[in-house]
């Protein structure tokens, strides 16, 4: 299959770049210039990505292909152009035959510590949120929209067109499964997803970006990011999607040393990246720099059965038993008898572990291995 | 090519609460010190000798096992030292040297290391060692005869033994405050109720042991002893004496709470502690042994995995 774009091609800001005609994956060019490289890189648990590098041209030319969609908003149009807008709205869920989505939850609370991106959007971009919610109702036909906000007060959200619910600001209350339980009163059965119950989650930024896109006729290309410095202080910054983090650090005078950690996301659930050339992605809510001396390290010390993990687990999992099965690689037993799939992935068990066992990593690995076994059974059998 | 800075990649979370196994063990040792110091004060150099030998040989046995089994050296985590200390605290000050070494061998090698080391032991290593020693050399744990040559400022009569053989009449000369302040004979570090209590409360406040276990253990002892006392106040001593004599307080705060052999959920912890307390008084009042704490703790260690089956339902669990 011939590639639609090659190195050397010209692209304009806001232009949709998809590499192959049949491939639903695409990106929105966030700068004007020539494609200087298309290279693969690997993420967590073997996920692979393609990075398209654009060398900037002097003057910016705005692409206007999206304007045709704005005239007549449809779900297909939104999926076609906004799936990788800031906040990465998972619009394709609505056209997915497997799940019938009945409720949309707009999460105005960030799901990790120190991160304030979505709280900021809720505070500062209410009008955009309102148009986003209107748009969402129009293109999906779903009327049942819930927005979660942090803290106690429900005042000032009356005109939004969404039912507003508060979420406790204490970590990890803003994780989808806990919002389902506490705000919506629905418990997601172990092994099922929120989407299986007909509920899907969008970040407040994604909805605001959709609102902006349809109000202005341009796909937003900048993202609000909480920048967490080594001393723990936070800044909210706005950066163009695709900016290498190197450039952000240079602008904000952050020095990164050998063996430091750069984390996309917050301290509890973020993902460490291995290169300073890593670009800002549509769902990068926070970038955290952690000095080598501050970062937690894991150990191979055995579990001493102190029970701290059990007492801290928001999902009531018997973590002390679960981790023994995961350490032994007995993932099926872990899932069948010790509630692997009840995990909400908050990371608190690893945080409190006296023996510094990487419990959260074991849990993610267990789920990944089971998923892999299931898919290979599907393809082979 | 531009020189790339090498970053470290690891899995979330990137923060840790900072708790460590070493911290737990050393704080437990620290919490036990008041009781130990009073023991040194009353029993002098022999007590110091027994305790030092106990701690030293416990560490040595651990080191030997580490080397023989070619596993990482774990003596630095303080667990072997803690086991040695607690074992020494339960002994009379005149314990012969060979018995101390044998005891720490049983605690470290048979009680802990053959199960796979820290966290894997089914029984409290200290309780296991004392139980085996008590059965094998009964006379060494007869505090009355072991401490015969001491001339202390209080009656050199082991109160729990006096209660066993003479009933309420046997303990009539002891007042409760003296017992609580350690004015009674017994193990080197088991008699100073106040010291052990303060140490235990410190450990509870720091989160190193669980109040559920300690409290329900003491409550189990008190209530069971109370019922016995109610039926026959002449044969069975009043519950307060049960709390303040023998190994009760050290058992409630330092032995029953051992991490690996105790449950982690709230209801199981309460049952576990209460069962230990009840068993203690049953053995003391109706069994063959003078003190029931050690055997009671072994019994509850045995039922702990079963108890931990009583657990809250996990989020979204489909039965």
Describe the structure.
Chain A has 381 residues and is α/β, with parallel strands linked by helices. Chain A is built from twelve helices and 14 strands. A five-stranded mixed β-sheet of chain A has the order 11-10-14-12-13, covered by helices on one side. Chain B is mainly alpha-helical. Chain B has two domains: 21-140, no CATH class; 158-306, no CATH class. Helix content of chain B is 59%, strand content 0%. Chain B has 14 helices and no strands. Chain B starts with 20 loop residues before the first helix and ends in a 12-residue tail after the last helix. The model of chain B has no long low-confidence stretch (mean pLDDT 94). At the A-B interface, β12, β13, α8, α11 and α12 of A face loops of B.
Distinctive features:
heterodimer; A: 381 residues; alpha/beta; Rossmann fold; Ubiquitin-like (UB roll); five-stranded mixed beta sheet; 14 strands; 29% helix; globular; B: 319 residues; mainly alpha; 14 helices; 59% helix
């Amino acid at each position: 299959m011939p590639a639609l774009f090659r190195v050397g091609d010209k692209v304009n800001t806001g232009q949709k770049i998809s590499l192959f005609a049949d491939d639903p994956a695409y990106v929105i060019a966030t700068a004007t210039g020539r494609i200087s490289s298309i290279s693969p890189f690997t993420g967590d648990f073997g996920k692979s990505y393609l990075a398209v590098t654009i060398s900037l041209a002097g003057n910016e030319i705005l692409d206007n292909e999206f304007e045709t969609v704005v005239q007549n908003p449809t779900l297909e149009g939104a999926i076609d152009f906004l799936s990788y807008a800031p906040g990465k709205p998972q619009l394709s869920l609505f056209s997915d035959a497997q799940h019938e989505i009945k409720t949309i939850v707009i999460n105005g609370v960030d799901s990790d510590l120190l991160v304030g991106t979505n709280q900021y959007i809720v505070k500062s971009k209410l009008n955009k949120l309102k148009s986003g919610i209107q748009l969402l109702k129009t293109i999906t036909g779903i009327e049942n929209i819930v927005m979660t906000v942090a803290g106690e007060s429900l005042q000032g959200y009356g005109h939004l067109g969404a039912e507003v619910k508060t979420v406790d600001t204490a970590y990890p209350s803003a994780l989808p499964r806990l919002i389902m339980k506490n705000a919506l009163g629905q418990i997601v059965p172990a092994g099922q997803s929120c989407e299986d119950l007909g509920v899907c989650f969008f970040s407040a930024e994604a909805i605001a970006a959709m609102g902006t896109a349809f109000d202005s006729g341009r796909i937003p290309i900048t993202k609000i990011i909480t920048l967490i410095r080594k001393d723990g202080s936070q800044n909210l910054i706005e950066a163009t999607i695709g900016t290498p983090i190197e450039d952000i650090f240079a602008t904000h005078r952050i020095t990164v040393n050998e063996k430091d950690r750069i984390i996309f996301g917050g301290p509890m659930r973020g993902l460490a990246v291995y290169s300073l050339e890593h670009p800002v992605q549509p769902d990068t809510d926070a970038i955290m720099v952690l000095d080598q001396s501050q970062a937690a390290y894991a150990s191979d010390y055995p579990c001493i059965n102190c029970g701290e993990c059990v007492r801290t687990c928001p999902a009531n999992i018997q973590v002390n038993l679960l981790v023994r099965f995961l350490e032994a690689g007995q993932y099926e037993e872990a899932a069948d008898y010790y509630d692997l799939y009840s995990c909400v992935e908050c990371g608190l068990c690893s945080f409190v572990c006296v023996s510094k066992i990487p419990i959260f990593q074991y849990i993610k690995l267990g789920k990944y291995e089971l998923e892999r076994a299931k898919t290979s059974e599907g393809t082979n059998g | 090519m531009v020189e790339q800075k090498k970053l470290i990649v690891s899995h979330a979370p990137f923060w840790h609460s900072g708790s460590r196994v070493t911290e737990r063990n050393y704080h437990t040792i620290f919490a036990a010190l008041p009781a130990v110091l009073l023991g040194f004060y009353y029993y002098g150099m022999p007590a110091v000798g027994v305790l030092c030998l106990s701690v030293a040989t416990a560490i040595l046995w651990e080191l030997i096992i580490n080397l023989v089994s070619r596993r990482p050296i774990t003596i630095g985590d303080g667990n072997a030292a803690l086991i040695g200390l607690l074992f020494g605290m339960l002994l009379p000050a005149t314990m012969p040297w060979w018995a101390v070494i044998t005891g720490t061998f049983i605690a470290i090698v048979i009680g802990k290391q053959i199960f796979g080391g820290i966290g894997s032991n089914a029984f409290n290593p200290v309780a296991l060692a004392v139980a085996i020693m008590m059965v094998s050399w009964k006379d060494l744990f007869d505090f009355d005869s072991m401490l015969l040559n001491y001339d202390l400022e209080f009656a050199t009569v082991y109160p729990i033994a006096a209660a066993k053989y003479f009933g309420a009449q046997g303990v009539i000369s002891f007042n409760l405050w003296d017992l609580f302040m350690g004015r009674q004979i017994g193990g080197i570090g088991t008699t100073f109720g106040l010291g052990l209590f303060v140490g235990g409360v410190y450990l509870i406040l720091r989160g190193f042991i669980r109040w559920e276990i300690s409290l329900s253990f003491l409550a189990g002892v008190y209530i069971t002893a109370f019922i016995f006392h109610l039926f026959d106040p002449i044969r069975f001593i009043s519950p307060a004496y049960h709390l303040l004599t023998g190994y009760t307080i050290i058992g409630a705060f330092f032995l029953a709470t051992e991490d690996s052999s105790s449950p982690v959920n709230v209801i199981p912890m309460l049952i576990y502690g209460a069962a230990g307390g009840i068993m203690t008084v049953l053995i003391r009042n109706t069994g063959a042994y003078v003190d029931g704490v050690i055997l009671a703790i072994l019994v509850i260690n045995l039922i702990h995995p079963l108890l931990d089956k009583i657990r809250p339902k996990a989020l979204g669990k489909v039965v």
